[in-house]
Write a structure and sequence with these properties.
Elements: H1 5-16, H2 22-42, H3 46-61, H4 69-76, H5 79-86, H6 89-92, E1 127-135, E2 146-150, E3 171-175, E4 181-187, E5 192-193, H7 199-206, E6 212-213, E7 216-222, E8 229-234, E9 258-260, E10 274-282
Parallel strand pairs: 1-10
Antiparallel strand pairs: 1-4, 2-3, 2-7, 5-6, 7-8, 9-10
Helix pairs in contact: 1-2
């Protein structure tokens, strides 16, 4: 029987302890313990509790086939980045190529031959030639890895957000060669604001935070025998590099977008100025599995 407020926590923990699955039991016991401690620490009022449950409901209601507000909120609180770093790089002790999946990855990107283009509709912007190398922790090349790439356009929109772009524009899937290399042509991306018309936007305004993500290239690399590598490579010249709204930038993920002011020596249709990015992705041993796509 509940006689004091402390008894609520004792009773709830006793119920959580009866959870059959050991990992779920560990999570639920810790969740109740910390959640109850949080309520006590901030002395949460009844009105604030009602508002909090309404916010949780709205996160789900605003998530759909083209937008995931819950993933956006997790990133805006730093949770996504923390989970990523805790689970990679020797438990957060060393640098890692892993990063956030983000809310805009889609399944079934079109296949692209190495050296091909992922630009599928008129997309004004400075040409970008991307080359990459996929290696294991000892630096040995990984052949036959599937490399899924995607990024925002030079106006800061992903193709599903922009009716001016063709379906799957600036998205593609390549396969590494025997030397672990892949490459493709695209246009240089820019930083962009995350959607601010929902719960996340209200939070950012209340905290006087800007909504911008620095310019970045997404990759998801899949190969049997290796943990699926999800990565983002950032432009070091972006003005929001140190204040990413999603807390996703680590030193290991900063690329080198080299500007060239002369014509491309092997591709006369690549007009100056153009940029080149070369980056090495390091995969760790593990289980190859695809995450659930946040949007359809």
């Amino acid at each position: 029987m509940i006689e004091r407020q402390e008894d609520v926590t004792t009773a709830a923990l006793a119920v959580m302890e009866r959870t059959v699955d050991p990992r779920l039991r560990e999570i639920m016991v810790a969740l109740v313990r910390h959640l109850h401690a949080f309520v006590r620490e901030v002395q949460l009022t009844e009105a604030e509790f009602r508002e909090a449950t309404a916010v949780i409901n709205e996160l789900g209601q605003r998530s759909g086939a083209a937008h995931n507000e819950t993933v956006l909120m997790a990133g805006s609180l730093g949770v996504s980045s923390l989970v990523c770093l805790l689970n990679n790089g020797d438990g957060g002790q060393t640098e890692t190529s892993q990063s956030l999946l983000g809310p805009f990855w889609r399944l079934r990107s079109p296949r692209v031959p190495n050296g091909g283009s992922i630009v599928r509709s008129a997309t004004p912007g400075e040409p970008l030639i991307v080359t990459g190398r996929v290696v294991d922790r000892d630096g040995r090349p990984i052949a036959g890895a599937e490399v899924d790439v995607w990024h925002a356009s030079p106006v800061g929109l992903y193709e599903h957000q922009d009716p001016e772009q063709a379906e799957m524009n600036l998205r593609g899937k390549l396969v590494t060669g025997e030397d672990g290399r892949f490459g493709f042509r695209t246009v240089k991306m820019v930083g962009y604001p995350v959607p601010t018309d929902g719960v996340v936007g209200r939070l950012l305004r209340a905290q006087n935070r800007h909504p911008f993500r620095p310019a970045h290239l997404h990759t998801l690399i899949f190969k049997d025998g290796y943990k699926t590598l999800i990565s983002q490579v950032y432009d070091p010249r972006d003005p929001h590099l140190d204040t990413d709204v999603q807390f996703g930038v680590t030193r290991a993920l900063i690329g080198d977008f080299v500007r060239h002011d002369e014509p491309h020596p092997d591709a006369p249709d690549v007009t100056a100025p153009w940029y080149a990015l070369d980056y090495t992705y390091v995969m760790e041993p593990g289980v190859a599995e695809l995450p659930r796509a946040p949007i359809a």
